[in-house]
Amino acid sequence: MVHQTMNSNKASASSASNSSRAIRRFCRAAQHAAAAWALAALAACSTPPAQPPPARAPGPTAAPRPAPPQAAEGAARWSRASFADLPGWQQDRHRELWPALLHGCARPSPPWREWCARAALAAPADDDAARQFLQAWLQPWRLQTVDGRVDGLATGYFDPELEATRVPREGFSVPVHAPPADLASRRPHFTREELDTLPAAQAALTGRELVWIRDPVDLLLLQIQGSGRVRILEADGRVTSMRLAFAGHNAQAYRSPGRWLLEQGELRGETVTWGAIRAWALHNPQRLRALMWSNPRVVYFRLEPLSDPSLGPRGAQGVPLTPMRSVAVDPRAVPYGSPMWIATSDPAGAPLQRSVVAQDTGAAIVGAVRIDLFTGWGDEALVLASRLRQPLQAWVLWPRGLEPPVDVRSP
Predict the structure, then answer these.
(1) Could you give the percent of the chain with pLDDT greater than 70?
(2) What is the mean pLDDT of residues 272-295?
């Protein structure tokens, strides 16, 4: 899943039936809130091994290393740390990390194969056992930029939930498309504006409609998040739950619609939420096309069964994402499947400190100290993802005794 994040200055689990109604509820609630909030709302068990491998300074090792571009790009430096350096480490519910860990271990990169075999056998009985296992087998490394900065940015993304129909009907007039037949051969492919205005571009999408949804802003939301869930209202009255999974994009540059609204002077503030964008669209229908065209990137989808509603979409690592425990990273800085420790705060300023796993990427997730937290699906996930834009410090938890895959700077 390759997503883009939504807050205006950034570009990538069950309660509500679709995000349109959810956001309208938030908008109504926001009318009675303080002004600052109004913009946001609108806008199997065992103990750890008794003798872990000894820690040692990085050096030559016979173990395979991740692909060379990780280091060649110079996206990050790692600085050796200790678990005592991790804010809130003793307080986290570490056992909650295991589903995400085991999903990642289904597709381990070479450095993680031996460790994943141990983790699969560990099945910690409680948080203390999980924490002891992590401490026994992993070494913390602080993430920093190549010029030594340790402060970065945490944002969020989520899994939209929408209602849809198989064919267009009243209230459902916005198509969600499968990739055009010539998507791979024509790069870049047509922009969003060209698909709306050029007959040849429109012909490329004829017959590629998967489902029809209610609102073009929902389509923009779906494409920026990179996947979503749909409740398909069948002609016989049944409801079929499916996933719209990422199937490609037109290779055009991503442009943030929120940033466009700020640049146009239509909205003000440092961040723009989906509620604010929707409220603007409702009051400015004559400029809706301009808003849509501000982002030339178009994402295409495929329909998949939603076989397990408790699982998130597949991330770039190829495994399901786990709410609040999976993050998108720059893979030049952090290899997929790596456990991490993040120290940030929620939009209200409360500490948000937890173990997570690097399992996805996103167009705007660039640099060393940069993560996008997968918040899940439903109303609460939407609100958190929309408003999360907080300072971040982060650590990678790397197998003890293995050399880091990037430049190392001693503390």
Answers:
(1) 81
(2) 93
Domain range enclosing 215: 2-43+159-305
DSSP secondary-structure letter at 367?
Answer: S
The β-bridge partners of 394 are 342
Instruction: Please work out, in degrees rounded to the nearest 5, the angle formed at the alpha carbon of residue 65 by the alpha carbons of 139 and 360.
Output: 75
Residue 144 CA to residue 266 CA, distance in Å, equals 36
Answer yes or no: do 298 and 185 share one domain: yes
CB-based contacts of 116, cutoff 8 Å, min separation 6:
101, 104, 105, 108
For 138-165, the pLDDT digits (tens) are: 999 999 999 999 999 999 999 999 999 9
User: Are residue 126 and residue 8 in the same domain, yes or no?
Assistant: no
The enclosing H or E element of 281 equals helix 274-283
Are 145 and 265 within one domain? no
Decide if 359 contacts 336 (C-beta within 8 A): yes
N-term to C-term CA, the chain? 35
Q: In the beta sheet, which residues pair with residue 245?
A: 302
The answer to whether residues 113 and 207 belong to one domain is: no
pLDDT tens sequence across 66-105:
333 333 344 799 999 999 999 999 999 999 999 999 999 9
Cα radius of gyration (the chain): 22
Question: What's the rounded Cα separation, in Å, for the pair 328 and 112?
Answer: 18
DSSP 8-state assignment for residue 54: P
324: left (phi over 0), alpha (psi -120 to 50) or beta: left
Residue where one domain finishes, among candidates 256, 282, 305: 305
CA distance 241 to 161: 10
Residue with tokens 């948080």: 127
Do 376 and 243 belong to one domain? no
